[in-house]
Amino acid sequence: MPHAKAAANVGIIVDNLLQQHxxxxxxxxxxxxxxxxxxPSKMNDNxxxxxxxxxxxxxxxxxxxxxxxxxxxxxxxxxxxxxxGEAPQRSCxxxxxxxKRLFAxxxxxxxxxxxxxxxxDTLNKLESAVTKNNPFPLPAMFNNIELGxxxxxxxxxxxxxxxxxxxxxxxxxxxxxxxxxFIYAQHIDNRFQQALIQTLGRHxxxxxxxxxxxxxxxxxxxxxxxxxxxxxxxxxxxAVSKNEAWPGPYGPSVDQVMLNVAQHFGNRARYILFSGxxxxxxxxxxxxxxxxxTIWAQNSESCANSSMPDSVVATGHVSYIGSPRQxxxxxxxYLQTQWMK
Length: 341
What we know:
Layout: E1 9-14, H1 17-29, E2 33-38, H2 47-50, E3 55-59, H3 69-75, E4 80-82, H4 95-109, H5 120-128, E5 154-159, H6 163-172, E6 181-186, H7 193-200, E7 207-210, E8 221-224, E9 231-233, E10 239-241, H8 254-265, E11 269-273, H9 282-288, E12 294-298, H10 307-313, E13 320-322, H11 324-340
Parallel strand pairs: 1-2, 1-3, 3-4, 5-6, 5-11, 6-8, 7-8, 11-12, 12-13
Antiparallel strand pairs: 9-10
């Protein structure tokens, strides 16, 4: 069994340079350590590295060539993912779906290795951190807003690795009393959901609340999306469990949270993608963009890992990019503009 913090070593054997590049980029986005990328004709050139590979990803474009070495590879002890098919270009709308399918297969292949999500160490460090940001002042137009009522403006916050730090910085910078409610979809071990609620709500002017069947998204609150099961909303905007696991490799699925929120709240919903590995949120961004929607993302420089927000930015549907504090300032300004319309 690998060490709890070890990333799986992956070797890529592909007879096409572009396919090699796309596979390597996608696997690194999901936190795998690609230690060997080679053409089949050169796979025996690095026996030392090959011996350290935990899983092989193999794709053959030239089907007419002889590949006797494949029999040896499949007969070995190292698992092999074969035949993912030609990867679409990163600019293609199908790329996020292909990338997610690749990760789901790799997760199944390397079940003994941990996913790159927020864990107990992350929360312990966050708990001991000193809050540096003072909240922005509350605009005078919001002084008489009554909190705790169903929110008119719904914002989805999606995050994975590095997300708790970024989201905490964002929430700590927001003034209490904004006319907005949040849904926070964070890839995290389900054992630490309550700890996440306590840690993020410690200094924020926004109240963190757990998912509760039948609850609504209220002004001044952040509801943490459950890890264990998917949820949607009834015609009154009340949370309803679907009693089934989230689709895809992560719980909660940021893609599915965004799609379910968009289905019920339409153009009342907006979205911010924070630090994380992988591309969760990118597929939904493409679909949601068919409506008049607002999608923002954390900038690469301030992320612990920028793969997730970068993937959403790459779709071309993100209208603002900034650090967590800049995103908070932008939200305050945005709400003022919307309020005056």
